[in-house]
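BUG: 3D viewer hangs when loading the predicted structure for this chain

Environment: internal workstation, default settings.
Expected: structure renders.
Actual: progress bar stalls at 90%.

Input used:
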Amino acid sequence: MESKLRDKCKCHNCLVSLILLFLAMILLQPTCPASLYAMDLMEAYNRARQHDPVFGAFFYEHEAAKTAPQQGRSLLLPNIQASGSAARIDYYEGPPFYRDFTSESVDLSLQQPLFSLSRFHEYRQHKIRGDIGDVRFISAQQELMFRVSEAYFNVLAIGYLLDLIEAEKKAVMEQGEQARRMFEAGAGTITDVHDAEARLDAVLAEEIKAKNDLAIQIEAFKKIVGTEPTHLNILKKDVPFGVPGPKNLEDWIENAKKDHPLLKFYAFQIDYQEAELKKNKGQHWPTIDMVGGYKRTNTNNNIETDWISYGSFGVQVNLPIFSGGYVVAKVAEAQAILGKVHKEYDNAFADITQQLSEAFLGIEGSLARIDALLAASESAHTSVISNRKSLLAGVRTTIDVLNAERDLQDVRVNLLQARYDCLLNMVKLKTAAGSLSVDDLLTINSWLQPATEK
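Structure tokens produced before the viewer hung:
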């Protein structure tokens, strides 16, 4: 019996040990590779929605604007008030019937506007304030999408530029070593060695500048997204660059005129100021209110009485006659502000038209540059190979090879810039048209891949 019990305890202990070992393996196992946690564009955007202070301010502004229609509606609904009072009245001198007592009263009043031009147009203004809040929030969302995209791809572009600089540095160092070996063997000159060293110094200076630019862009990204841009997904090589539909600039301008939230904002501002003008003019008109009330009290001219209660109901008319010129001045002010808002709308439309033109032409120019630079990259790469072979044959010098490598580097950098310019101009075009959406970000996000796959 004791033997069986001992064996059972031993099995139990073994089972506990296995469970503990399994848990330890789970807790202590290495974390997944960083590439599995790479931040894509959508994750950066979602983080920015939670962190970016500029967008956060617009979010709360929008929440406040949602209450405006309800505030305006209250101007047309009944205003009901109730009040009560109790006071101790003690007489020091007076006829005998002036007795000390506690004065009490309860009042209930009602006022329902029946006719008021000013109140009606103020109600319209509150509704417009709600609409303004909606379009400003939409504009803030689109602006955030653009800023996140710009910050994301600025970091990627400089990171890829550093990769190109690193490759050039490696090539220049190898060329310098070769020049040194050829000089020591008597097949080269000290000038070739010095040329390679000078080129290396220039590359190192570019690397320092690029690293500084990267640090600046990282801080800009962190300000928006709230975290370091580590392990970002990179742009694929086969991105379908092109002008998104429609394919002509005039249609983009027409679409922006209808859909751009900034233009809608100024259109609502015009409506708001027109209502302001009518509201001020309405102060010359009479107002008609339905009024009613109920009162219960035990006091009449500070003398105690039996409890008295009565109600009243009627119509109250107010006719403005003279206000010292205030209403006339407010009308003139509203007319001037209305003219100002019309000009602001025109200016905003001109700015948007310019932005659309720049983005549209920028895409076309970037596409042409990409095609030309792809061909130039092939030619420059062939030139580097030819110059290296010619150097070994004694036909070319080290400086010729370094110049060919510099030409190849310049073409690659320009191609990199053209690709990212084209991508950002596509985002700018959508932003300038007021049509940038989450679906656009999802499309761009599909053009990215983990860095380990490049």
